[in-house]
Design goal:
- The complex is a heterodimer of chains A (about 250) and B (about 300).
- By secondary structure, chain A is mostly helical.
- Helices cover about 80% and strands about 0% of the residues of chain A.
- Chain A starts with a helix and ends with a helix.
- In chain B, strand 8, helix 6 and strand 9 form a beta-alpha-beta unit.
- Chain B has ten helices and 15 strands.
- Chain B has two domains: about 220 residues, 3-Layer(aba) Sandwich (Rossmann fold), CATH 3.40.50.300; about 70 residues, Alpha-Beta Plaits (2-Layer Sandwich), CATH 3.30.70.
- A six-stranded mixed β-sheet of chain B has the order 7-8-9-4-10-11, with helices on both faces. In chain B, strands 1, 2, 3, 5 and 6 form a five-stranded antiparallel β-sheet that branches. In chain B, strands 13-14-12-15 form a four-stranded antiparallel β-sheet.
- The longest helix of chain B is centred in the last third of the chain and has 18 residues.
- The radius of gyration of chain B is 24 Å and the shape is elongated.
- The C terminus of chain B is likely disordered.
- Classes of the chains: A mainly alpha (about 250), B alpha/beta (about 300).
- Chains A and B meet through helix 1 and helix 5 of A and helix 2 and helix 3 of B.
Chain lengths: ~250, ~300
């Protein structure tokens, strides 16, 4: 698995794609962060006068992480689309299938490599709200919950992207499948009048993300994200087994 | 001697199509075997099953006494595989790629450099280590493909059409490389070029429609067949007239005064030449026919095709 991880990281960072995605993510979020902060400074006086309970955590950090999750949703499929599609196209999948390693190790190596790139993105995003510690004291619990939510969402995006990439030889089609699945999961909660225990809400990515951005970390949310990561990874392993003809 | 590779009734179905049916193979240490057959005969499918890329629908593959399905990791360590399209990452350098392939097969860090340099010198890649694979010529890419199959020093090397797409000089080089590898490894290679099998292999297997229809040592097969002759006549008679000559069993017209004559047992080419010279047909050329391998190949792989087409 370490051999695959090292090879994937080398390929990801050799290509301008990972650097481009990281740069674009940082640029957009830095701009949004600045806008949020500017708006907050404008209304700060009024909030104090109104004795509002809303502070920098609710008005700057939560929207920033929410935006980060959305921008990452648009960027991650571009990172993941080549993972398996390119192996199919180049015929290098035979190199992996003929090697004395398991399908799970192939998937695990590729997933960890993607995760490491996304950890870079996560650290860059996390640096922005953490920089506020210099001048103010945000709600640390909510901040941690928000950053955890972003990390889990990124892992989920990577897992879904990896699975989509294992389905097709065309990277563009892999990206389309990722977008379709991720956008569907993100908009399931928009159904009008959904009850709090509606299955659509429970399946919705945004629902769990918003709860955690509000500082609420329930075991249900953690299980949801664990399944969001584990299910596509399992499906990818099964897909590789089917490729060998064993499934 | 214990066989290094043995398959038992290997079958593979794709939907309703039987790509490979009931293949029994044996490969002994130090042997180079060619798997011949027309396109679509099931050669690549068979080789992919031998190296564990494809699971057989039924049947078993045993390598070094280990069942490939039950002990895949141990069995696969003994195999080096070059698919039809060399499995290369064009954006990696040759050294990076070979290091990756070595680690993938469990070569330790302490042996990595030594093994990499050994296969590079073996495959003539000595000064290519820092070059990007995508920038190499097709011939050198093929060498890198062979180098990756050898890097972990496997006992069994499986090469799927190793000389496809190469120019004549490169083909000669690759064949020489395969011959030199045969000294220390067992090799099974697929090809649809008969000359390739004749020049490097000890034994040939011919596949047709998913089955092995022929398996013989090459030694006597590569001798030209003395019972089939090709003649060229300046003023040719009817085919039937030629077929009726004493000692001629059958005659086929090949066009432009060229005929293929099959002799009866006991009739020599000298006798036929005399018969032809006695007649006023202006004998221009008399040569031995196809090699036995070519004849066997043509007979086994075209008979059903004409039947199927009818």
């Amino acid at each position: 698995m370490r051999a695959i991880l090292a090879k994937e990281l080398r390929q990801l960072f050799h290509s301008p794609l990972a650097w481009g995605v990281l740069a674009a993510l940082q640029l957009i979020l830095a701009w949004l962060f600045m806008l949020q902060l500017e708006q907050f400074l404008q209304i700060q006086q009024r909030l104090t006068t109104l004795q509002s309970t809303l502070g920098v955590t609710a008005l700057v950090i939560a929207p920033l992480i929410d935006s980060a999750a959305t921008v990452a949703l648009l960027m991650t499929p571009l990172l993941t689309m080549n993972s398996f599609s390119r192996e199919y196209q180049q015929g290098t999948i035979d190199l992996l299938l003929a090697a004395p390693i398991s399908s799970a190790a192939i998937v695990g190596g590729k997933f960890l490599a993607l995760l490491l790139v996304l950890v870079c993105a996560w650290l860059l995003v996390a640096a922005m709200p953490l920089s506020l510690l210099v001048g103010t004291w945000p709600d640390i619990g909510t901040l941690i919950a928000s950053l955890l939510a972003l990390a889990l969402a990124l892992a989920g995006y990577a897992a879904i992207g990896l699975w989509a990439s294992s389905l097709t030889t065309q990277p563009a089609i892999a990206a389309v499948i990722s977008y379709a699945v991720l956008l569907l999961l993100s908009t399931l909660n928009l159904t009008a009048g959904a009850a709090p225990d509606s299955p659509l809400l429970v399946l919705s990515l945004s629902f769990h993300l918003q709860r955690m951005l509000g500082g609420l970390v329930g075991s249900g949310d953690l299980i949801y994200f664990a399944l969001l990561v584990a299910t596509p990874l399992l499906l990818t392993v099964m897909r590789l087994r089917r490729l060998r003809g064993g499934g | 001697m214990e066989a290094l590779l043995r398959t038992n009734q290997l079958c593979r179905r794709f939907g309703a199509v039987d790509a490979v049916q009931g293949v029994d193979l044996e490969l002994f240490p130090g042997e180079i075997v060619a798997l011949l057959g027309p396109n679509g005969a099931g050669k690549s499918t068979t080789l992919r099953m031998l190296c564990g890329c494809l699971t057989p629908s039924s049947g078993t593959v045993t390598i070094n006494g280990l069942d490939l399905q039950r002990s895949p990791f141990a069995a696969k360590r003994a195999i080096g595989y070059l698919p039809e399209t060399p499995p290369l990452y064009r954006d990696l350098r040759v050294d990076e790629y070979l290091n990756f392939c070595a680690r993938l097969r469990g070569v330790g860090t302490d042996q990595l450099r030594e093994k990499r340099e050994r296969v590079k010198s073996l495959c003539g890649l000595g000064d290519c280590g820092r070059r990007l694979i995508g920038n190499l010529s097709k011939g050198y890419q093929q060498r890198v493909g062979i180098a990756q199959a050898l890097i972990h020093d496997p006992q069994l090397i499986i090469l799927d059409e190793p000389s496809s797409g190469l120019d004549p000089n490169q083909i000669v080089e690759i064949r020489a490389l395969i011959r030199s590898l045969g000294a220390n490894h067992s090799i099974i290679l697929s090809s649809h070029i008969l000359a390739e099998a004749e020049s490097v292999c000890d034994r040939v297997l011919i596949m047709h429609r998913g089955s092995v229809v022929f398996s013989e040592p090459l030694g006597r097969l590569s001798e030209p067949d003395q019972q089939t002759l090709t003649v060229v006549l300046g003023t040719p008679p009817q085919r039937e007239t030629l077929a009726a000559l004493p000692g001629v069993a059958a005659a086929d017209a090949l066009g432009s005064g060229r005929f293929e004559l099959r002799l009866e047992a006991g009739c020599s080419s000298g006798q036929l030449a005399r018969e032809l010279a006695l007649r006023d047909w202006e004998l221009r050329e008399l040569s031995s026919g196809k090699s036995s391998l070519e004849q066997v190949f043509t007979r086994l792989t075209t008979v059903d095709r004409s039947a199927a087409g009818a």
